[in-house]
Amino acid sequence: MEFFAWCMIAAGFGMAIGSFGTGLGQGIAISRAVEGVARNPGASGKIMTIMLIGLAMIESLAIYVFVVAMIILFANPFTEQVMSLVG
To answer: Which of 24, 29, 39, 63 is deepest in the core (most CB within 10 A)?
Structure first.
């Protein structure tokens, strides 16, 4: 059962690091966009469009981390090998 405990820990750390990184990236992107609109209000439409596309790309990284964590937890390809070694 130690293998499955390590899988849970790895998935948890992966989600924590992935969430931290994407949250930090989104915060920086939004602050820079607001700064750009404050400097040039006329370009707010272009800045908003580019920011939303960038945020979608950053958010896709968080979704990929979530998918990998779920694979580690529920569809682990090494489960059979570990169980054969244990039992």
So the answer is: 29
The CATH topology of domain 2-81 is: F1FO ATP Synthase (1.20.20)
Closest CA to 4 of 72, 68, 65: 72
Q: What is the value of pTM for the model shown?
A: 0.74
- Report residue 40: phi and psi, to 5°: -140, 85
Q: What is the 3-state secondary structure (H, E, C) of the chain?
A: CHHHHHHHHHHHHHHHHHHHHHHHHHHHHHHHHHHHHHHCHHHHHHHHHHHHHHHHHHHHHHHHHHHHHHHHHHCCCCHHHHHHHHC
